Batch of 2 targets.
Target 1
Amino acid sequence: MSDFFSSGWHWFIAVLSVGGLAFCIWLLFASAKTTDMSSDGTTGHVWDDDLREMNNPLPRWWLGLFVITVVFSAIYLFLYPGLGQVEGSLKWSSDGQYQDEMAKAQAKTAPLYQRLAAMDAPALAADAEAMGIGQRLFLNNCAQCHGSDAKGSKGFPNLSDNDWLWGGDFAAIKHSITEGRVGQMPPMAAAVGSAEDQRNLAHYVLSLSGSAHDNLRAQLGKEKFAACAACHGAKGEGNTALGAPNLSDKVWLHGWGEPAILAMIQNGKHNEMPAQKNALPPEQIHVLAAYVWSLSNR
């Protein structure tokens, strides 16, 4: 991709733009002239015995429009960027305009966010204006993964319940939004043992939440759970410090049942929530975190 942004493309675009404008000017003068090729004012071409090709000048209105477009193009290239890396006399850019508009919007909303920044999560949750802002921030930045109702889907956590991988208090939610989260479960097949051992472990995991399971296999797999207890805890209740899920409830982020658990044991799982600190200012993250907190604390 670095070749695409080399200086050669700057010259290519500049030459193409100037060459196109020069061609239009030449075409304007060339088309304005008439050259009689026959004494009767025609080109000398005749079809079907009586159809003669005339050589009349272009209509004045057409020439006028053509002149206007050429002049407009020349003025535009002088004022705005259109010749590769040449900025234009106005120094305008789409990024600059975006930054100016964002600065104006932030200046306009600064007093509002200053008021909201001084409020804690319960106070924000009780403020209708704050929750309206938080909901719009959520729909614009979070709903793509967690759904417009925040109930998530397979692989994307439900934010409206009380099951939290990294903790559901306001500070933890705010940290998750700001810095993002990376969840990593390594493949555990080698540590667990044979295919039968893996199946036994899967049924033991199912037994922790009271899900349907083979009781004999669960008893045989209990010993193998020692390989998992370091992250999930001795009773499988999870560890929010590591983002390790609670295996003793009925919330299954990546699927339920023996096949899903076996796939997790054999393949592991890498999950990542991107950090939003570069996309949202701190004051907006503060309100957004309060909105997410309110979903499970109503």
Target 2
Amino acid sequence: MTALVDEHPHLGVEPVLRELNIPSSTYYRWRQAETKPCERRRRDAELTGRIRQVHDESGGIYGSPRVHAVLKREGVHVGRKRVERLMRQAGLAGISPRRDKGFTRRDPDADLAPDLVQRDFTADGPNRLWVTDLTMIPTGEGPLWLSAIRDAFSRRVVAWETSARADADLVLTSLEYALASREVAPGELVHHADHGCQYTSVKLTTRLVRAGIQASMGSVGDSFDNALAENLWMVIKTECIRGRVFATRAEANLALFAYIDGFYNPRRIQKRLGYLSPIEYEEKHYAERAAAEQVNLKPRQPALTS
């Protein structure tokens, strides 16, 4: 209505209001609201600016739950429903995953390890359960195969490697990187994969035995048997790969490095981790363990005797 009055200033305000049966007091109240918005509207505008910034910093990945969690971590007191409303009004939304097909193939003659996990992808600390798998990323030079190892405790990608070939050397290299970067106690770690021929190879199984790591295997073609690894591919392909065309394998490698090492491990918060990133979650675990050890080491005061 105020726009209509602005479009026809030659008619005058009062004649237009009379024609529309709108009290002049109502019109001037609307005018005042436009020039001097109420506190809630001003607050909404401020929140929308910060919400847009958080959304942009995530690469357009975060939906309202993670945006709300980031704001809460920053000390911003706002309800989740309000964040949902403001994101909807600003045209902001997270991205949703979609299911992809698997690529590993079973060797019918291979000796298989037992399934020590039984679909229970939980661990009481780092380096107790690692899950691993292979996936393919298309490029202009041909397929780029990605092998990654994920820690079940913190959901951290502890190692990843790529190659033009999906062979045993690829998965062995990613294992070597993981062992070099993590402190693994012999006999305490389970390495879980599917029945893919790369994971039943002599090279990999021998290395696991030498490192004192227990091999575990779920079945091929059943995403539930290696769900935590399958979930990683869903996340990477949704948030890093989808909608992008890589001309070369090097270009895809650079994108993976920026996402996994620059965003996923250090910054991508997860609901299962209490809205912490994998690295933050591990740091919290080690800090709490160190504090508990300090308490246990404190000398006790001797009891007073009369």
